[in-house]
From TrEMBL:
Pfam families: Thiolase_C, Thiolase_N
Entry-linked PANTHER family: ACETYL-COA C-ACYLTRANSFERASE (PTHR43365:SF1), BLR7806 PROTEIN (PTHR43365)
Keyword Magnesium: no
Family of this protein: Belongs to the thiolase-like superfamily. Thiolase family.
Coiled-coil ranges per UniProt: none
Name of the protein in question: Acetyl-CoA acyltransferase
Boundaries of every Thiolase N-terminal domain copy: 5-244
A GO term, aspect molecular function: acetyl-CoA C-acyltransferase activity
Organism encoding this protein: Paractinoplanes abujensis
Active site residues of this protein: C89, H332, C362
E.C. designation(s): 2.3.1.16
Signal peptide: none
Matches recorded under InterPro entries: Thiolase, Thiolase-like, Thiolase_C, Thiolase_CS, Thiolase_N
Amino acid sequence: MRDAVIVGAVRTPIGRRGGGLAGVHPVDLSAHVLRALSERTGFDPADVDDVMWGCVSQVAEQSWNIGRNAVLAAGWPEAVPGTTIDRQCGSSQQALHFAAATVISGQADLVVAGGVESMTRVPMGSSGQGADPYGETLRTRYGVDSFNQGVGAEMVAERWGFSRAQLDEFALSSHAAAARAQDAGEFDAEIEPLAGVKLDEGIRRDTTLEKLAGLKTPFRDGGRITAGTASQISDGAAALAVTTSEWAAAHGLRPLARVHAAVIAADDPVIVLTAPIPATAKVLARAGLRIDDIGVYEVNEAFAPVPLAWLAETGADRARMNPRGGAIALGHPLGASGARIMTTMLHHMRQSGLRFGLQTMCEGAGMANATIVEAL
């Protein structure tokens, strides 16, 4: 029976909005990690059957199928195709799911999954600017004029009873964990430097609870969500090479992990951010595992209450969640984040000798992907 294994994982450093990667076209960001992936992993780009590339704002410099444009910019053979996927924040995690399904089904032997987002050059929301993406029927069903993740984060904080202080403390812990990991060189093996940038730029080493407490709450007067307890607007790209154990062995490639289970789930689109909870239950059931069987959990820090609510509902060990920080500290380049998080988790598992890892992330319209990988 065919399986799906990840044989390579690499990412750019994550640039702050207007930071060191702001001058790099998103096609070139993508091409950079494609080249690095093939060089580090040792596969011939001519063997790639498809490139599945996540990107959320598919307009302007990220339009016209950036997945295919990245292949050509990387200098790979013209015979290598590429496509672009939008599952909102989970776009490149969904790309991994599609890649795994494709090789397991026998439609391909080697697929590259990943994604990109240059939020400096193509601002968030650009693809819907000046348009109505919902329509009257959808708005009438839910009784809202629009669906807003910041408002949803306020709703999550209220529903689970998280105080402003608890959210600020979580954000501070994310920066502390990321700074510790960066100082220990734990990100070095997964990053391919670019444009003179070698390190993730978003980590705020000087932040304090006092500074966080002084930030405004833009989504609700007297609310609990601030810029400090939200993921950062960022630039970056990441890529994963997916094949079968048999093909990897035949071509001298060493698998990092097997895709053990992969699911998608959905929940209330008004609160938006709660689907990682049912997605986790679903993926554990499909894998035949319990939450305590998992050595590390990566739960995307879109907003601080998201991973906190996930912890409350799953009963997971806080010490195993986002051990190297998350999007609050590292940043959240939308279309790249799924592959970035998987890349970080795979390297952590390898360096720490862990067998199972679970990744999940909330997505626009109330969806979430969840993936369990098993180290090999």
